[in-house]
Amino acid sequence: MGTTIARRAALLSAEAGVAVSPRVAVTLGDFACDATEALRELASVIPPAALGGRSALPEVLPIVPSMREAVSLERYNAAERRVLLRASLNATRSVEVLLSASAVDTSVLLLGPLSSVLRIEQGRAEFVDERMRSLIIEETGAFERRRAHAELGRAAERAGYASAALLHEARAAESGVQRSLARRLVQEAATQLERGFTGNAIMLARQARTAAPEQATATRSLLARAAFWHGCFDDARAMIGDSASHDPQLVELARLMEKIDAGPEPGADDRLRALRVKEWLLEAAEAQNDLKILETVMAAEQFWYAGNADEADDLHARMLLSAGVAPGITGWENGTAQPTPLLQAHVCVIRAELSMRAGDMAEAARVLVAGVRELPMELAAAGVVPKFVRTIGASGTDIDVALADHYDRLLRTTSVKYVPIGPLKAERAVAAMRASGGRPSGPPTSDSAPELRSLLTPRQCAVWDLLAGGLSNREIGESLGISERTVEVHVAAILRKAGVTSRSRLLALLNQ
């Protein structure tokens, strides 16, 4: 898994001439299905700041020329295209909202060609291949998109997703929105930020700013703060601009970013630097979960540096038991909350360090690689991540040490092997990590492949074996004497059972 991430990041870095964030490399590699030419073309059209993880990727990734032959809408009828468009635009990803907005029965979703295109899990409909989503949006006119947003807004309202309904309502407007609606968008964006869903906050605030220019002042501060906690520092800087002196919150945010950007002083203790960063974050935190986590972490660190390992262990355990992120939660559900991505990255680093200090290098590697795939790790804990990666690699544990080099390039530092000073008495913290399950670890590793195979039907096992040999769906169908359409259904089922969202991730697993 780690090798795939490093290889993608290296290729994209070489093509773009900038250091590419590993989590961005994962996203673009999955989208391009690891096709080298497609990755090169993507690197040429994505801004350098977005490639480096300092700015958000486009909400809809572009279909580059080399992808044109790989995805097509020709096989779908009008009803199926209607569902696909609404699935592409559906903020909630809710199947209930999708069916209601599409005005079709469940057979269209479950028994036709769409069953191999849309993956249904935990009440949500996700595209098996994200390129299909981009293609649908690109090839649909503005009028059709607005009509779909209007239908999705009404369906979301009926299903109880009031904030998502608000977003769809604004996107359905032809030109501009009422001032009252723009104010509601800003208010809901602030609520989403407080609950930790920074991506939702950014979408709502941008919509308010685009639709109602008079809301620019109110949205600028919101966008800057949400971008910061989302891990997009360049976006935050762009919003701060020259107006920081007129907004106390932006003044403090600008100062905080200057401190973090300054990096550690020569010869500084990285653990003390990480503690200082957490102190700064605590001063600026807005999300309630962020505040609780940071307060607990600060107290634990103070106990640790005072030599009271027992109290530090207990507080770390309390934090880990309460800092989990529920799977499938999008933030559009009423009352849900989670830590912001930037805080999740810090929690990920804490999990890894505690595992290392307790001698469980395999768990530390699992936690770090999961974070590499999802979180702004390049901004977490004062840049100790590359040192952790090297320490884990030096222990003989399976992790790609090349990831450390990519992070060093992003951080513009030269780190050496970092060996935790310990051991730390962390029985409760380690038990808390195991009890809470840690963060989702992404696709299964090669160790779990036999277990996954046991979940497949005999026909799915046959398809699995031929996939591992690199055969296309058509070739698999010819080999097994079944139609290409039937092969697609089996591949979709295997993807669902493997817990991956694209054929490229499945192939990476098979190749291990």
From TrEMBL:
Gene Ontology BP term (one): regulation of DNA-templated transcription
Domain HTH luxR-type, first and last residues per copy: 449-512
Lineage top rank: taxon: Bacteria
Keyword Transcription regulation among UniProt keywords: yes
SMART domains in the cross-refs: HTH_LUXR
Keywords tagged on the record: DNA-binding, Transcription, Transcription regulation
Keyword DNA-binding: yes
InterPro entries tied to this protein: Sig_transdc_resp-reg_C-effctor, Tscrpt_reg_LuxR_C, WH-like_DNA-bd_sf
Pfam families in the cross-refs: GerE (PF00196)
GO molecular function, one term: DNA binding
Name this protein carries in UniProt: HTH luxR-type domain-containing protein
